Amino acid sequence: MRKMILVTASLLMAATSSQMVRADADADIAYRQAVMAVVGGHMKSMGTILKGQIRAEDLAFHADAMRDVSVLVPSVFPAGSGEGKTEALPAIWDEPAEFKLAMDKYTSAAANMAEAAATGDMSKIGPAIQGLGKSCKGCHDDYKEDD
Fold this sequence. Notes:
With 147 residues, the protein is mainly α. It contains 5 helices and no strands.
């Protein structure tokens, strides 16, 4: 009887543990999607400002926010968060060194954009926003499902 209780308890603990891991992965995915929506919002805002030549005074705000959130982005891909309803490709976790390089390019490009936006000099801002867009596209091409 005691052996039966131990086996049953072990099975219940394993099932509960599995469900908790799944819940954690779902929460990680939801958080990652929210953070990436913030990234997309700032990128779209900067593009709109530059294309429409409107609200130029807001460009540095969005560039600074992009720089700030860029240092958080690498952490929103924890191990185990690639399973579930996500557009993140397994290559993120299968090729961690390459993914880290891509994240480093992004954080560097975001910092460069913030520096350029602070100057207000379009000869610096243009190349900086192009570099930032290129870093975003590189990650999307290699590490995100096609839309």
